[in-house]
């Protein structure tokens, strides 16, 4: 193994962050260079590349067409659920993006306007993101697994001029009609979009509403036939490229803003230095465009880097089998795969000996990247042994847009430590503080924070919510960004991320708010009080478990109520919430000041040692909960 340049590079960032990022920014085409690399007096905590003008679509698409990549595949769509494969060269990709941009322009979409994209994993979803970027419009992609109410909340928050959607999505074994969800959301929303552009899929078409809905295929074909050209609109580096809503502690999701300039600089740098990928190579992130991993590593980073990206509409198992990932890698010559550990746990469960792997030619495959949730050492080792390539766990968040910590492949690998997502990346001064905000010694668990300012590519604030941004991230530890993760740093500066400090849970790599679920469960007429906690799950990492206290007037049998509560959460939040278990208890355990002791409930359910909280109102309640869990076959533990 060659010596890693990591320490040298990290130190060079620490010595002079502005010089470091100015150098990284040379890899991007700018319409106008910045006045200041970092303007500390702008925005909430400062802004990167202030005064610069640029366009993300130019850098991700046009630049490559002009510089010899016109015939190279930009995007390969591989959809085992529909039996479709299609490759788009950079030139074809540009033609699709320009045509859609023309249609958007005809509907009055201009710089700064918001466009919601509610799409399954089809190429049009990616064209839509880039078409918005081309016009300087701000896209907000909403994950297809969210229900109408969640979509409506996002429509109301960002007030889109237009929505781009499709007739249906496809999950194994079922076709999901999107149009009723979209129509329902618009019905509920106060800020109604003027138009919707709809992709009609052959698996299930839909009725278009006259005057409001526009057919995607017909309108873009007409734009192509008319030879429409839509130039890239220069925007300020600090202008928003997109808003991505992510779970907060309430039912109101947080609108994470990504700017144009810093985002491009950070992602381009990460492809080289963190992921070790060369322009022209095939890079695959098996996620969904509705999540941040999809935004950054299916769409923007590979395209900014001149790579070929794979858009995979399928699952790691069942579409058709646990060999699908290896088939895709070998067929398209992918050098890397990025996915969530859950996907590997699913494959391992189905094919424990990895018997599908040798059936495919994986000779080009160099690295497996895992993120989105804690990568358990057992899964990492299984993947390492079966695939014979480095398995790189890395840690980040929707808020940061690219990894905070990693083992940087491009700078030369450091020794792997199982259970650790690596060392802090340039830009991130990661520290561990106790609840009083004081630094803790190495090896001690505490709040993981990042010293301000955050580097390029991180959220500058929340959409129209500076105060919420302060409250959620900056107020608790002045001078630092609170990640809301708990963890520790060892003597060699490796990070270990152990848990969230808020009520966010991570289900199959999907970030969900238990607070949002509680709001829905509490709406059930028979529920007096409730708490939702994340309990351990061998496949999905965590799954939500609802505890409900029924109204004294509730007389129906609990099985019926449980089914109704589960259906209500599915209807309001979406199937992705994955709430499948609701337990009736007599009372919720609370502190004397009325705070529900969710962490203790979770520990009891997970069979972990727990201490009797000193402030508990009535200790007997925990025995009641233990008994209720036991009755459902869930773990119990003795008080430590
Ligand atoms: N549209 C509509 N419904 C969706 C959806 C989408 N885009 N994505 C998921 N769902 C549904 C699923 O069909 C499932 O419905 P069900 O309760 O009727 O079975 C439900 O939401 C829960 O989905 P999930 O938690 O993903 O479970 P699953 O059993 O469908 O799949 C895995 C399990 C492990 C195969 C899958 O979660 C996976 O591949 N995860 C890892 C990769 C990943 O995407 N990570 C994201 C961040 S990197
Ligand atoms: P998301 O915003 O959906 O990317 O979720 C971010 C959260 O997922 C983080 O705050 C962590 O709690 C968790 N997470 C992401 N990657 C990792 C990792 N490699 N190890 C442990 N937790 C992770």
TrEMBL record:
Taxonomy of the source species: Bacteria, Pseudomonadati, Pseudomonadota, Alphaproteobacteria, Hyphomicrobiales
Q: Which GO terms describe its molecular function?
A: propionate-CoA ligase activity
Q: Which GO terms describe its cellular component?
A: intracellular organelle lumen
- Similarity comment text for this entry: Belongs to the ATP-dependent AMP-binding enzyme family.
**InterPro entries noted in UniProt:** ACAS_N, AMP-bd_C, AMP-bd_C_sf, AMP-binding_CS, AMP-dep_synth/lig_dom, ANL_N_sf
Q: Please give the organism.
A: Borborobacter arsenicus
Report domain Acetyl-coenzyme A synthetase N-terminal positions.
6-60
Domain AMP-binding enzyme C-terminal as annotated: residue spans: 517-595
Please state what the protein is called: Propionyl-CoA synthetase
SUPFAM superfamilies, A to Z? Acetyl-CoA synthetase-like
Among Pfam families, the record links this protein to: ACAS_N, AMP-binding, AMP-binding_C
Q: Where is the AMP-dependent synthetase/ligase domain?
A: 64-451
């Amino acid at each position: 193994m060659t010596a890693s340049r990591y320490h040298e590079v990290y130190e060079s960032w620490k010595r002079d962050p502005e010089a470091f990022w100015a150098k990284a920014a040379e890899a991007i085409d700018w319409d106008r260079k910045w006045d200041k690399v970092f303007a500390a007096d702008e925005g909430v905590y400062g802004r990167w590349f202030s005064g610069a003008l640029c366009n993300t679509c130019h850098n991700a698409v046009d630049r490559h067409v002009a510089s010899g990549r016109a015939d190279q595949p930009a995007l390969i769509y591989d959809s085992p659920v529909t039996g479709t494969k299609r490759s788009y060269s950079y030139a074809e990709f540009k033609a699709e993006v320009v045509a859609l941009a023309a249609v958007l322009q005809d509907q009055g979409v201009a710089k700064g306007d918001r466009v919601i994209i509610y799409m399954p994993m089809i190429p049009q979803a990616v064209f839509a993101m880039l078409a918005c970027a081309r016009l300087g419009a701000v896209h907000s992609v909403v994950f297809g697994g969210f229900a109408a109410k969640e979509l409506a909340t996002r429509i109301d928050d960002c007030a889109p001029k237009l929505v781009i959607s499709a007739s249906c999505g496809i999950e194994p074994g079922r076709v999901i009609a999107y149009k009723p969800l979209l129509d329902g959301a618009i019905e509920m929303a106060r800020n109604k979009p003027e138009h919707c552009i709809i992709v009609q899929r052959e698996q299930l078409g839909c009725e278009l509403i006259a005057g409001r809905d526009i057919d995607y295929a017909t309108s873009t074909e007409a734009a192509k036939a008319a030879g429409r050209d839509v130039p890239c609109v220069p925007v300020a580096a600090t202008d928003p490229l997109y808003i991505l809503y992510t779970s907060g502690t309430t039912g109101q999701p947080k609108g994470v803003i990504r700017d144009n300039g810093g985002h491009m600089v950070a992602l381009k740098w990460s492809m080289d230095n963190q992921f070790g990928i060369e322009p022209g190579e095939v890079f695959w992130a098996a996620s969904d465009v509705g999540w941040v991993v999809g935004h950054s590593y299916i769409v923007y980073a590979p395209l900014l880097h001149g790579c070929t990206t794979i858009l995979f509409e399928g699952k790691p198992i069942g579409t058709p089998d646990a060999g699908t990932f290896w088939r895709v890698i070998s067929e398209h010559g992918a050098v890397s795969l990025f996915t969530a550990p859950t996907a590997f746990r699913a494959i391992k469960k189905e094919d424990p000996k990895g018997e599908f792997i040798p059936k495919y030619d994986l000779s080009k495959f160099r690295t497996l990247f895992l993120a989105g949730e804690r990568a358990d050492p057992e899964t990492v080792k299984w993947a390492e042994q079966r695939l014979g390539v480095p398995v790189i766990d890395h840690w980040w968040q929707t808020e940061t847009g690219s990894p905070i910590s990693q083992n940087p492949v491009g700078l030369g690998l450091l020794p792997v430590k199982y259970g650790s997502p690596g060392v802090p990346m340039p830009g991130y001064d990661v520290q561990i503080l106790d609840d009083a905000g004081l630094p803790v010694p190495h090896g001690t668990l505490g709040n993981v924070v990042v010293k301000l300012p955050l580097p390029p590519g991180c959220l500058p604030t929340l959409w129209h919510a500076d105060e919420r941004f302060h409250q959620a991230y900056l107020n608790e530890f002045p001078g630092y960004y609170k990640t809301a993760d708990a963890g520790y740093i060892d003597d060699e500066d490796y990070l270990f991320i152990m848990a969230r400090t808020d009520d966010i849970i991570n289900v199959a790599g999907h970030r969900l708010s238990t607070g949002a679920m509680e709001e829905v469960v509490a709406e059930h007429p028979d529920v007096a009080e409730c708490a939702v906690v994340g309990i351990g799950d061998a496949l999905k990492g965590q799954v939500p478990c609802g505890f409900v206290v029924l109204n004294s007037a509730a007389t129906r049998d609990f099985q019926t109520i449980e089914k109704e509560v589960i259906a209500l959460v599915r209807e309001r939040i979406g199937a992705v919430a994955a709430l499948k278990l609701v337990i009736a208890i007599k009372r919720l355990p609370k502190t004397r000041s009325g705070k529900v002791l969710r962490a203790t409930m979770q520990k009891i359910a997970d069979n972990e040692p727990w201490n009797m909280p000193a402030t508990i109102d009535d200790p007997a309640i925990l025995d009641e909960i233990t008994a209720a869990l036991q009755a459902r076959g869930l773990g119990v533990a003795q008080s430590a």
